Amino acid sequence: MASNVSNVEALGDRPIIGLTTYLRQAKSGVWDVEAAFLPRVYFDAVSRAGGIAVLIPPQPFDLASAHRVLDGLDGLIICGGEDVDPARYGQSAHPTTDAPKVDRDNLEDALLSAAIDRELPFLGICRGAQMLNVHQGGTLIQHLPEVIGTDKYQKGDGVFNTVPVHVDDNSVLADVLGTETPIPGAVYHHQAIDQPGSGLRVVARSDDDIIQGIQLDSVPFGIGVQWHPEQTAAEDARLFEGLVDAASTYRSAR
With CB atoms counted within 10 Å of each terminal CB, which end of the chain scores lower, N or C? Predict the structure, then answer.
């Protein structure tokens, strides 16, 4: 009995990390319904890094709601998914841009506002990095193949390509990943950061100068990466471990 109690206490001491999700039509048995969805690799990466994952589905949301949700969290991940509404950065939609997902955009925008205000550690992945940039007033390239002349960042059919990512030595990202670059980045995106938003610093690029990492210098741990570290977290969980460590520090401080 004592060992079980000890195990429960150890688990209860792990930082709680919120992860945003998206909506998908899902089938289970006789049911075919719209449901909150997030690939397992995301929350497995959090668990492997020592955190407890809590999923946050798209829903009507405002800044007050975000603060109430973050009351129970120690860290936040804005996950990958469909394109950010280009109206948020003052552009018309490119023909290849996904239809707007207003509920998710609003939710993540509010969560980022509250997280930045609290200095709660956060990580944006792919769409999440783009959402952070748009939140800070930046813009996006809506269709990379028209800019770089290749589809290497999104080959299609759900197959991730790998590109070398060069990380700035003077960055939180380098503190977490080390200074030996390039690192292999698993990519699946047809959009990318164009003009960085206010307070954001570019801290990683690929060989063709496409932005692969940004950080918000006004907070202790506020990172966005364009690649998908969850895809390789079974072999290299350093980015998630860095977030969980920052979340533990945040939890202790409050």
Answer: N
Instruction: Find out whether 47 and 9 touch, Cβ atoms under 8 Å.
Output: no
Catalytic residue among 108, 126, 189, 190: 126
DSSP 8-state code for residue 31:
E
Question: If we measure between CA atoms, which residue out of 53, 96, 92, 76 comes closest to residue 191?
Answer: 96
Structure-token match 């239809």, residue found: 99
Out of 3.40.50.880, 1.10.10.60, 3.10.330.10, 3.30.420.40, select the CATH number for domain 10-142+192-199+221-253. Answer: 3.40.50.880
Rounded distance, CA 190 to CA 95, Å?
12
Contacts for 128 with CB less than 8 Å, ≥ 6 apart: 20, 77, 78, 79, 80, 108, 224
pLDDT tens-digit map of 199-212: 999 999 999 999 99
230 is catalytic: yes
User: Per the residue annotation, which of 135, 189, 190, 230 is the catalytic one?
Assistant: 230
Regions of the chain with pLDDT less than 70: 1-11
Give catalytic status of residue 241 as yes or no. no
The β-bridge partners of 216 are 200
Q: How many CA atoms lie within 13 A of 128 on its CB side?
A: 26
Active site residue 82: no
195's CB contacts (< 8 A; 6+ apart) are: 138, 139
pLDDT digits (tens, 9 = 90+) for 104-121: 999 999 999 999 999 999
The single residue of 79, 190, 228, 241 carrying the catalytic annotation is: 228
Q: Label the pairing between strands 140-141 and 192-193.
A: antiparallel
